[in-house]
Amino acid sequence: MAEAIDSGSEQNELIRLQRRETNKNRAIAIAMHVAALLFWEFGVRWLEVPRYVLPAPSDVIATITVAKYDWLNNSWVTASEILGGYLLAIILGIATALLFSWSKWLTTLAFPLLITLNMIPKVALGPLVIVWFSYGISTNILITFSLCYFPILLTTIRGLREIEPDLLDLVNSLRGTKWQQFIYIQLPGAMPFIFSGMKVATILAVAGAVVGEFIASDRGLAYLMIQVQASLDTPAMFMAVTLITLIGMLLYLAVLLLEHMIVPQDARKS
């Protein structure tokens, strides 16, 4: 009884220390960001750097009130492109990996083709994408999808292959279907690998949306950057970059939160 109490106390102490360390790291990260912004603000003003070369953070923030930039609508467009392509890549990436795990023949036939398609520079496809699909959000969603799909596919395939064969044999012995194998055995076991690919894909999703708006869009934050470049409105360009970064960070944090809710801590560490 006493040993159980001691064990529980040690575990609670360990949790408390871990939380303290986490809070400490968060405080350091926030302090570093604040220090960098202050250094930037006072450094630019002290050195009298021209506003069109490097604006101060206060100048960048001031552009948020300029109505002609329509920040809310342009942010919504970019966020829709990022999230749309990202979710499509997750769905099709996991579905394709499942098909490959079920059929060696399909893997032999289609996987080399997918590798070849992935090696094609996505920016080089921009003019063709415009010809095929014209301008619009759907085109940029497709470009975002093309960048996110392969990392999710590869990590999911690896995760499905890491499943113990004995577990699959057990389901077969109980006359379980392949779908039941996937739902109850393969998908839960592959989750750490899937989330690994999803975290990589968040970065690629942002890059895909930006590239898409550069070459095939008439709306969005990246498109706005091109428009204000002609007038050397550098603060507006910085604000567009800041908003794109915030969208990407929110997506990444959402994936981390979902991983924390679904994947056990031991599996995340391994």
UniProtKB/TrEMBL annotation:
It comes from the Bacteria. InterPro entries: MetI-like (IPR000515), MetI-like_sf (IPR035906). It is a multi-pass membrane protein. The chain crosses the membrane at residues 27-47, 82-102, 109-135, 141-160, 193-216, 236-258. Keywords: Cell membrane, Membrane, Transmembrane, Transmembrane helix, Transport. It is found in: Cell membrane. Residues 75-259 form the ABC transmembrane type-1 domain. GO terms for biological process: transmembrane transport. PROSITE patterns: ABC_TM1. The keyword Repeat does not apply. Belongs to the binding-protein-dependent transport system permease family. This is NitT/TauT family transport system permease protein.
